[in-house]
Amino acid sequence: MLIHILAWLISCMPMHQPPPTKPAPPEYTVTFYANISDTNGEFGWVGHVWVSFNSPQIQTVVGFYPSGLSDDSWRPYDVSYPFSVSAEQFQSGLAVIDAYRNKHYLLGFSDCRGFTANVAQAIGLTPPSTGIKSPAEWLGALVQINRP
Q1: Is residue 30 a contact partner of residue 83, using CB atoms and an 8 Å limit?
Q2: CA 53 – CA 79 distance, rounded (Å)
Q3: Taking each helix axis from N to C terminus, what angle separates 112-122 and 135-146, rounded to the nearest 10 degrees?
Q4: Residue 83: inside a domain, yes or no?
Q5: What is the per-residue pLDDT across 7-45, written as a single tens digit (0 to 9) for each?
Q6: What is the DSSP letter of 55?
Q7: Is 63 helix (H, G, I), strand (E, B) or coil?
Q8: Would residue 18 count as lying in a domain?
Q9: CB neighbour class for 77 (10 Å; exposed up to 12, middle 13-18, buried from 19)
Q10: How far is CA 47 from CA 25, 27, 36, 146, in A?
Q11: What is the pTM of this model?
Q12: Antiparallel, parallel or unpaired: β 28-35 and 68-71
């Protein structure tokens, strides 16, 4: 009788169930873009560097110009590099956008490279010197310095 009860209890127990799965954490990505020459001729040979923020809730692409911040989702690019970041780093990067809403553009000091360097620093990266490098060279240096 005891064997029958034990056999019945064992038959009622779930067998070979996989462990419960946790939902994947949301992915936060900050991608830096650069083009070698400005396609609309606004800045001649200088080029441009800008950034996108992508999460399940936010998708925005923004660059900094003499006229201020602008949606750069339309802009073609020559090089890009994504960085996976935490939610906190993502929010810190977005805060740079707010900080630049009233900034004045000054080539070599407060320009597209300065903007993206501040985003890079806010998300925990070490930005390269803005120096005299083109935006594409600056992005290459950012990737090389912060490569895992």
Answers
A1: yes
A2: 16
A3: 10
A4: yes
A5: 554 555 555 556 667 766 659 999 999 988 655 555 455
A6: -
A7: strand
A8: no
A9: buried
A10: 36, 30, 5, 22
A11: 0.77
A12: unpaired
In which domain, by residue range, is 128 found?
A: 26-146
Domain-embedded: residue 93? yes
DSSP secondary-structure letter at 43? S
Instruction: Say whether 29 sits in a helix, a strand or coil.
Output: strand
Structure confidence at residue 6 as a pLDDT band (50, 70, 90) = very low
Residue 2 lies in a domain: no
- Residue whose C-alpha is closest to residue 38's, from 14, 83, 11, 72: 72
C-alpha to C-alpha distances, 61 to 13, 14, 116, nearest whole angstrom: 53, 49, 12
- Looking at residue 99, which CATH number applies to its domain? 3.90.1720.30
Check residue 52 and give its pLDDT.
98
Residue 139: CB partners within 8 Å, gap ≥ 6? 32, 33, 34, 49, 79, 80, 81
What is the DSSP annotation of 4-22? Answer: HHHHHHHHHS--SPPPPPP
Pairing verdict, β 28-35 and 48-54: antiparallel
Q: How many domains does the chain have?
A: 1
Q: Are 78 and 34 in contact (CB under 8 A)?
A: yes
